[in-house]
């Protein structure tokens, strides 16, 4: 049987991007790369509107599909910790008709990342008590299944807000010392930043070296508010579902080119 193949036209970008990726990789050889990368996966709804898809939920599904690709790129770059902000505490105030599809996408993403063929260690960070009970339980169970894996640590920030994290850290710290019988006056005399850091959602992890935000917005919106004091920031115009490997490599190149002053 004769099979006729229709050749698809090759666009200029199909030829240029592979060459550009190779060039970026050459530029990164021997350069300092981040241990911990935070990513604000922003622009899913705007991508859906711009793309003319059937519903805004399609934007979140397209964004969910991008996450495994990103983690693969991080693995290739030797990144040890990745923090993905998927849902803020403010997002939880959205109408149920809009919020529920987002939660379903997040559940699917987390279950897929926890699958046996992957080696990532998942941690769910955020105010899980604000999530629907079934969602919180599913996310926790998926993270438990990845315990002991040898791959990168992947923090899934869901129901996350930087101010809420600091408030939770202080609350946990007060409860801990109250259980020891420490008075408020005694705690005030010894309290320092390390005490609070030990109670953050990301305790025990290095602070993010690089924070990436997609969609063209140039603000942190409270993401890793405490931990990002000395982070480098990279703002990308692409909506999250359109984020490409070249965009990621550009972010690494920008990071490698900066002289980190740590508050200086």
What features would you describe in this structure?
- It is a single chain.
- This protein has 264 residues and is of the alpha/beta class.
- The chain has a domain at 34-162 and 207-257: Undecaprenyl pyrophosphate synthetase.
- 46% of the residues lie in helices and 13% in strands.
- The protein is built from 9 helices and 6 strands; from the N terminus they run αβααβαβαβαααββα.
- Strands 3-4-2-1-5-6 form a 6-stranded parallel beta sheet, with helices on both faces.
- Strand 3 (121-125), helix 5 (133-145) and strand 4 form a beta-alpha-beta unit.
- Helix 3 (56-77) packs parallel to helix 4 and helix 4 (96-113) packs parallel to helix 5 (133-145).
- The longest helix has 22 residues, at 56-77.
- Mean pLDDT is 92; it is low at 1-8.
Annotation keywords:
single chain, 264 residues, alpha/beta, Undecaprenyl pyrophosphate synthetase, 6-stranded parallel beta sheet
CA radius of gyration? 21 Å
* Overall strand count: 6
Helix/strand structural class:
alpha/beta
Poorly predicted sequence stretches spanning 5 or more consecutive residues: 1-8
For the largest beta-sheet, the strand count, sense and barrel status come to: 6 strands, parallel
Measure the end-to-end span.
Answer: 71 Å
CATH architecture of the domain at 34-162 and 207-257: 3-Layer(aba) Sandwich
Strand fraction equals: 5-15%
CATH topology of the domain at 34-162 and 207-257: Undecaprenyl pyrophosphate synthetase
Kindly report the name of the CATH homologous superfamily of the domain at 34-162 and 207-257: Decaprenyl diphosphate synthase-like
Based on CA inertia axes, which overall geometry fits? globular
Helix content: 40-55%
CATH classification class of the domain at 34-162 and 207-257: Alpha Beta
Mean pLDDT: 92
Give the count of helical stretches.
9
Strand order of the largest sheet: 3-4-2-1-5-6
Task: Give the SSE order as H and E letters.
Answer: HEHHEHEHEHHHEEH
């Amino acid at each position: 049987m004769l099979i006729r193949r229709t050749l698809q036209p090759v666009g200029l970008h199909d030829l240029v991007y592979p060459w550009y990726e190779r060039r970026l990789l050459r530029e990164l050889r021997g350069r300092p790369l981040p241990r911990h990368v935070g990513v604000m996966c922003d622009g899913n709804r705007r991508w859906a509107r711009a793309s003319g898809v059937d519903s805004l939920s399609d934007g979140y599904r397209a964004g969910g599909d991008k996450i495994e690709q990103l983690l693969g790129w991080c693995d290739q770059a030797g990144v040890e910790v990745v923090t993905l902000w998927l849902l803020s505490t403010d997002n939880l105030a959205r109408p149920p008709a809009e919020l529920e599809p987002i939660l379903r996408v997040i559940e699917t993403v987390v279950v897929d990342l926890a699958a046996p063929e992957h080696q990532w260690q998942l941690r769910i960070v955020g105010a899980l008590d604000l999530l629907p009970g079934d969602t919180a339980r599913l996310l926790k169970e998926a993270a438990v299944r990845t315990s002991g894996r040898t791959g990168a640590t992947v923090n899934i920030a869901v129901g996350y807000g930087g101010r809420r994290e600091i408030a939770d850290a202080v609350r946990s710290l007060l409860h801990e010392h109250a259980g020891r019988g420490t008075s408020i006056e005694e705690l005030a005399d010894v309290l320092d930043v390390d005490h609070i850091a030990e109670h953050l959602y990301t305790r025990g992890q290095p602070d993010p070296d690089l924070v990436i935000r997609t969609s063209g917005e140039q603000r942190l919106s409270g993401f890793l508010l405490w931990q990002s004091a000395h982070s480098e920031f990279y703002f990308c115009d692409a909506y999250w579902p359109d984020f490409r490997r070249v965009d990621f490599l550009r972010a690494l190149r920008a990071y490698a080119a900066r002289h980190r002053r740590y508050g200086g």
